[in-house]
Amino acid sequence: MTSLLSVQGLSVSFTTYGRTAEVLKGVSLDVPQGAQVALVGESGSGKSVTMKAIMGLLPQPPARIHAGRIMFDGRDLLTLPERERVALRGTAMSMVFQDPMSSLNPVWTIEDQLSTILKYADRRLGRDRDRRGRRARVIEVLSQVRMRDPERVAGSFPIMLSGGMRQRVLIAMALLSEPRLLIADEPGTALDVTTQAQILKLLRDLVEAQGLALLMITHNLGVVRETSNYVYVMNKGEIVEEGPTADLFAAPRQQYTRDLIAAVPRLTGRVAT
Amino acid sequence: MTNALEIRDLVKTYPVRNAFGRVSGQVRAVDGVSFTIPAGGVYGLAGESGSGKSTIARMIMGLTAPDQGDILIDGVSILGQQDRGRVQMVFQNPGASLNPRRTVGQSVLVPLAAHGFAGDRKARIGDLLDMVQLPRNFADRYPHELSGGQKQRVAIARALAVSPRLLVLDEPTSALDVSVQARVIDLLEDLGRQLGLTYLFISHDLSLMRNFAQTVGILYLGKIVETGPVAPVFEHPQHDYTRLLLASVPVISAEEAAMRPVIPLINGEMPTAEDLMALRAGLNAKEPAR
Fold first, then answer.
1. B69 vs B14, B51, B231, CA distance in Å?
2. Do A267 and B205 touch (CB under 8 A)?
3. Where are the beta strands (DSSP E) in B133-279?
């Protein structure tokens, strides 16, 4: 099976105040077409840097990518001309952000924000779509994320929506340009547990229904199990273990993974270790 | 046996104002909540945003006055009392609850000074750092030099400074990584045993509550909808809201997944709490009240 996204031997360092820190040390991971993959790690493990490198959002400097390739659909994103790189971002691959409040502009309606994003995505892809076409697409993605009343939501300002609805808007935003890969950065962590469960179920359903590939970036092992069938465990800039999610959770091979899993409190009560 | 904490029929309402500042109604943030915690016990209060759990914590701490009801510590009402030394609180975000311009020692000293501690302050600070398993020389460090787990240990040391009977733990580990969380919880358990502390543990993390608390109260819109020892509440939840909460917890093993109640999907989706209640009440679930 060919991979839609393949990160190969990615090494990144950051230089600040004359000191250099190796942040990623040869990270490799694959996201096949239509697969649901999770990247899990604790704070400082390098999972967000990996995500930013994939999206091309690493500020360089201070960051420097000194080795590795990021293959997307057979092309190396790191050597791609900037124009083509930009054309992919937010279109073929898009991100679901974590914090619904800071990712939305408070003085624009949802429709204004989504149709503006769509307008520029269309321009990058050389697509032609008029105002009415954009509105139709905005309403369409809002109903795809199961908004009860997409027309009303489109006319709303972010403050008029609940946290769960805002998170849905962010998912709709990511779906606008029919991406093939969704990268989700801890979606729902800012939400209540019942709302988070709805968001995770929605993401799972969408990814399955539309055949999208999903790269879920999280620190929550429960979220990994709920949303992925293959997982990479990251620690201190390295992938320490990978495998099918169920297998890895049932029989972790590395001590780090074992300790991480053992630290998670269980709904069933204490487990003998 | 006496109860370390007894809450009797606590009520707190807040006015709802319209755009012109006129009072147009009221919201019952805490609506007749009663529970007790035996000395040395751990009571878990679980609920989502808006359930009233923080309002309850604030009332126990004396930061908000209840409209009705009573709060007793060791059988004595604390309402109107000035000295709150017997109850201390550990906050959610240790980065925000420690003053960045005070050293660890100075932060820990604040409650000691406020309660007129007469002994050797330096020795007391050292003892407190020992208790939370931090090196004594941390007294001279500033919060930015510490990791999240270490900061939370300092916050615990500060709460313990005046030898309280009861600690209110408001999401004490939700800002921490899971491995750090496990160690902080271990520490709290050890301290509870050594010092005979009573804990009120407020959290939305049900898996953690299952492991840390002995008794749990599920709070929904200001009311405790279900309460009891953790094992029966988690294994045989009676109330729909408890069932929904448990069904929503992301878990990491098949045994846990099997334990989660099955919730009817509404239009192929996990229902919201309001929808589920409405469904049970026989109302039209497609038109929620809000």
1. 16, 18, 29
2. no
3. 166-170, 198-203, 215-220, 223-229
Lowest mean pLDDT, pick from A251-255, B30-34, B282-286 = B282-286
Mean pLDDT along residues A30-51: 90
Nearest to A267 among B182, B234, B244 (CB): B234
- Report pTM: 0.84
Residue A17 DSSP SS3: coil
Domain extent, residue A147, equals 93-178
Distance from CA of A205 to the nearest CA of B (A): 9
Buried b (16+ CB within 10 A) or exposed e, B35-48: bebbebbbbbbbbb
A225, part of any domain: no
Write the DSSP symbol of residue B122.
Answer: H
Q: Is residue A226 part of a domain?
A: no
The chain B residue lying nearest A223, using CA atoms, is B250
- Count CB-CB contacts under 10 A for residue A252: 19
Q: Which of B207, B210, B269 sits opposite A201 (nearest CB)?
A: B269
Residues of B in contact with A269 (CB under 8 A): 210-211, 230-231, 234
Conformational region of residue B179, where left means phi above 0, alpha means psi within -120 to 50, and beta covers everything else: alpha
* Token representation of residue A30: 């694959």
Residues B10/B219, Cβ–Cβ less than 8 Å: no
Q: Kindly tell me if the per-residue pLDDT of B283 is higher than 60.
A: no
Query: Nearest Cα to B216, choosing from B197, B236, B196?
Result: B236
ipTM for this model? 0.81
Alpha-helical segments (H) within chain A = 47-55, 82-88, 110-125, 131-144, 150-154, 163-175, 193-210, 221-227, 245-250, 255-263
Q: Is A270 on the interface with B (CB under 8 A)?
A: yes
Collapsing DSSP states into helix, strand and coil, what is residue B52? coil
Does residue A129 sit within a domain? yes
Q: Domain containing A157 — which CATH number?
A: 3.40.50.300
Please choose, from the candidates A259, A195, A194, the residue with its C-alpha nearest in 3D space to the C-alpha of residue A221.
Answer: A259
A75 against B290, higher pLDDT: A75
CB contact under 8 A, A219 and B177: yes
Q: Do A264 and B207 touch (CB under 8 A)?
A: yes
Q: Examine the pLDDT at B282 and tell me if it is beyond 80.
A: no
How would residue B224 be classed by pLDDT, with cut points 50, 70 and 90? Answer: very high
Is residue A97 one of the residues assigned to a domain? yes
Q: Could you give the CA distance from residue B149 to residue B177 in angstroms, rounded to a whole number? A: 8
| Cis bond before residue A62 (omega within 30° of 0) | yes
Find out whether A173 and A206 touch, Cβ atoms under 8 Å: no
Map residue A271 onto helix, strand or coil: coil
What is the total count of domains within chain A?
1
Whether the predicted pLDDT of A100 surpasses 80: no
Interface test with B, best of A152, A171, A194, A257 (most B CBs within 10 A): A194
